Amino acid sequence: MALDAENKQFLAQHGWAKDYKAIIQNEIAALRAAGKPVPSLDLVLAVITQESGGQAWAVRFEPKFKTWLEGQLAKDPSKFKKFTPSISRDTEIMLRATSFGPMQLLGQTLRELGCTVGFLTEVCKPELGIAYGIRFLSKLMTRHSAENDVIASYNAGSPRKNVLGKYSNQEYVDSVNALRVKWKYIIEKGWL
């Protein structure tokens, strides 16, 4: 089937997807071989689209998270470990309170996933950032059976809901799901 105008434009805007597809598939295969939960290709592509629009060098500082992290480290300094002697404690804290790369993972999440690179900015390299993003999705899939809980947790840390039963980040969940539908259609048609 020929690529229609709407999807042709979408793929043109998201040309990075073809470059990232092999990275995603390799990490998914590694998780599958290890017997771990595996996120779908459309979910990974939707998260990347939502989080960074595919921009490898996307970064975002999270000031509220920095404040929370400093409070946690004040209570229990043993939770803090520097990975590069040349980085000051303050710099490491700033990096842990910053999201990096195509999947916009917080530095703290990266450290919790076992990322030991000295400078967390290295996660902007797609092969590294996407691998850790997929591992994080897999980890969330072990905690939550509902995919929407996984999506909400990826963005907000947990699947918090209000009294009406909607996620605290319902717009994010809805947006990722709409992107999944788009990517799934494109994948099924063989256009990626």
List the SSEs and their pairings.
Blueprint: H1 5-13, H2 16-33, H3 41-52, E1 59-61, H4 63-75, H5 89-96, E2 98-100, E3 105-106, H6 107-112, H7 126-143, H8 147-156, H9 170-188
Antiparallel strand pairs: 1-2, 2-3
Helix pairs in contact: 2-7, 3-9, 7-8, 8-9
Would you mind describing this structure in some detail?
The protein has 192 residues and is mainly alpha-helical. The chain has a single domain (16-188), classed as Lysozyme (Orthogonal Bundle). It contains 9 helices and 3 strands; from the N terminus they run H-H-H-E-H-H-E-E-H-H-H-H. It has helices at residues 5-13, 16-33, 41-52, 63-75, 89-96, 107-112, 126-143, 147-156, 170-188, and strands at 59-61, 98-100, 105-106. A 3-stranded antiparallel beta sheet has the order 1-2-3. A hairpin with a 4-residue loop joins strand 2 (98-100) and strand 3. The two termini are 13 Å apart. The mean pLDDT is 93.
Record the strand order, biggest sheet. Answer: 1-2-3
The portion of residues forming beta strands comes to: under 5%
CATH level-3 fold name: Lysozyme
Write down how many β-strands occur, each being a DSSP E stretch of 2 or more residues.
Answer: 3
Assigned CATH architecture? Orthogonal Bundle
Q: Tell me the series of helices and strands, N- to C-terminal.
A: HHHEHHEEHHHH
Structural class per helix/strand content? mainly alpha
| Termini separation | 13 Å
Number of helices: 9
Provide the domain count.
1
Mean pLDDT: 93
Unreliable residue runs: none
User: How many whole angstroms does the radius of gyration measure?
Assistant: 17 Å
What is the level 1 CATH name? Mainly Alpha
The amount of helix comes to 55-70%
Q: Biggest β-sheet: count, sense, barrel?
A: 3 strands, antiparallel
Shape field: globular
